[in-house]
Write a structure and sequence with these properties.
Cytochrome Bc1 Complex, Chain D, domain 2, 6 helices
Length: 171
């Protein structure tokens, strides 16, 4: 009753079902992937009106970037730089991204021999600490079309420490 042909058909059925499952998973990930493609413009489906809570305090913002940068720790910034080290170096050699030693007050897109995406001109003319802060918070938002795939550093303290570290790295 259980011969080689029956066993082969059953095994083929399981392999085919598994293949269809994997292809379906891949298609679902492509269709429902989060994180891009929608741009900054999107329509809100509906708005729910609520009564004003009255007396609700506005969100308290932390200290500004300049204040944090004045007391930032380059040692902590070196630890934050490990997130950047996959693509950037501070020894004068380019990797996936351009080298970052001497980046503070360097003209944007000025590393010789590195092919920039051209979108960085939206950030400014030079990599000032303030321009780096804006860019590091959200690279895709600060320079739409940039080829940098990093999502950004959300904490202003991390950005201040990183900029302090980059200031300490000399040419």
């Amino acid at each position: 009753m259980l011969d080689t042909m029956t066993f082969t058909k059953v095994l083929g059925g399981f392999c085919g079902a598994f293949l269809i499952f994997l292809l379906g998973k891949w298609v679902a990930e492509e269709v429902y992937a989060m994180g891009g493609g929608h741009g900054d413009e999107h329509a809100q489906g509906y708005v729910i009106e609520v009564a004003d809570a009255g007396g609700a305090a506005e969100e308290e913002e932390g200290p500004d970037f300049a204040t944090l940068l004045a007391s930032a720790d380059a040692g902590k910034g070196e630890r934050v730089f490990k997130k950047c080290a996959a693509c950037h170096k501070v020894d004068g050699e380019d990797a996936t991204g351009p080298h970052l030693n001497g980046v503070i007050d360097r003209a944007i897109g000025s590393v010789a021999g590195f092919n920039y995406s051209g979108a960085l001109s939206a950030v400014g003319d030079v990599w000032s600490p303030e321009n780096l802060n804006v860019f590091l918070e959200n690279p895709k938002g600060a320079a739409p079309g940039t080829s940098m795939g990093f999502a950004g550093l959300r904490k202003v303290e991390d950005r201040a420490h990183l900029v302090a570290y980059l200031q300490s790295v000399s040419n």
